Amino acid sequence: MQLNKNVNLKSALTAATCSLLGTQAKADEDNDWKFDTALMYYAENDRVTATEGIISGTKEFKDEHFLNLKFTIDALTGASATGAVAQPVAQTFSRPSGKGSYSISPNETPLDDTFKDTRVQLNAQWTQPLSTDYVSSAGVHLSKEYDYLSLGFNGSISRFFDRKNTTVSAGFSYSHDLIEPEGGINTPFSEMIVPPTGEKDKISNDDSKDTTDLLFGLTQVINRKMIMQLNYSISQAQGYMTDPFKVISVVGLDGYSINQLYENRPDERTKQSVYWQTKYNLAGSVIDFSYRYMWDDWEINSNTFDIRYFIPLGDNYIEPHVRYYMQEAAEFYRPFLLEGEALPQFASADYRIGEMDAITLGIKYGMPLKRGSELSFRLELYKQTPKNAGFEAPGVLQDVELYEEVEAVIAQVSYSF
Amino acid sequence: MLTNFKLSIIATSVIIASGCSSLGVEPWERDLLAKKEMKLTSSPIDASLDDHIYFSKEASSGGRSFAGGGCGCN
Asked: How far apart are CA A257 and CA A84, in angstroms?
C-alpha cells in the first residue's frame, strides 16, 4: 500500500515536472527523477513562526549530466524586534505602513506583530563534466515575496587532480534584489510619527541591492576514512541594506525614550570567509566537523563551529548536532542614541548585527525505506544570547532588559524517494 | 636562533611534503568515501533550510557555499 503511494506520488511529480519542462515522461527510463522533500516548522517564543516546504528533484540525463529543480515555499507570521528599547512604562508605536499603531507593556522588548509574508523560490541547476578532469555547473534562482524580489545566477568549475583525490574549484554568483517595503524607503533617521498620520517621511517607494560572490575551494581526500574541504569566499553587496522596519530609540540621560528614528546602514558591504570542513569515518559512524571565520568591512567578525555525528542503528541512523556561533557587533551598531548627541552617519539597533552568541542543539533520526526512499525527522533548539558590546545604559535603561534572549524550536520531516 | 628557526621551517615543510605524497586513495579504496553520509553535504535540504534560518537571524552567511542575496528582514 505504502509502496503504491510512493510510486504514485513519484509518477505524479515526474509528470508535473516533465510538463513544466515540456518533455515526455518515460516510465521505463533508467535514470528516473529523484526527489528530496521536506517540511520545516520554526517557532520562536512569542516572536516569529515560519513554515517552509521544499521539493527538490534531480535527474541524471546521461553520464553525470544532472538537472536539479527546487521549489521552496515559506510562510512567516508573528512579531519581530523593532530595535526600540524596553521602558519601565507602556509605549506606543506606529506600524511601518504609517497607518495604525500598537502598544507595548512596561519592561517588554518592543516587537511589531504585523509580520506576515509568503515567499516562493525557484532554483534550477545544471551540472555536467566538461572532460575527465573538469566538471562545471550553472544555475539560476528566483525568489518572490510580497515586498521583495531576488533574481540571480551562478556558475562554477571544478578540476580534479591526483586520481580525483584533489578537487580545486572556483565559482561566482550574482544576485539582483528589489525591495518595495510597506511604508516605503524611509528618509534615514526620520522620526517615527506617533500617533500615525498616514504620512511618512520617505525618499522613495522601492530600492535595490546587487550582490556578487566569488568562492574558491580545495577538497582533499586524506585517506580511505577522511575527506577535507577548505573554502575562501568573498561577497560584495551594493545598494539598500537598511532594514526599513527597524528603528533606534533616542533616550534622555534619565533613560526615558524621547522618540524613535528609522535606522540607516551603509550601502556597501564586503564579507569574506574561510570555511574548513572535515569528515571522518569512525568504524561506520561519521564525524562531520566544520569551522567558519567570517569578517567584513562593517567590522562584524564571527566564528561558527558545527559538529554532527552520524551513528548507524541497524538500518536506521541517528545524528546529534551541535552548532556554536559567536559574532561581534557592527561598527555602527548602537542599542540606543543619546539625546543631544550628534547623529552618526550610520546607526542600527538591530540585535542581529550586535554582539551575540548562539547555540543550536539538534537530533535527526533517519529510516531508509524500500526502493531507496528515506524518511527522517529532525528536532533542533536554537538559542540566541545578545550581549552588551560595551554600551553604558543611562537611568531607567539599567532596569530593563536591553539584550533579550531569543529561543526557537525547529522541527522538520524529510522524505526522499 | 635564526638558523634554528629556518631549520624548523625546512623540517616542517619536508614533513608536510612527505605527508602530502601519501594523501589520497586508489579508486578501489573509495568504498567508505562513496557512502552518502561521507558526502561533504550529505543532506542538501537540511543545509538549505539551515542557511535560510541563520541568514535571517545572524549577520553571517555563506562559507560552505555562496552567501547570496535575499532580504532576511524579519
From this structure: 9
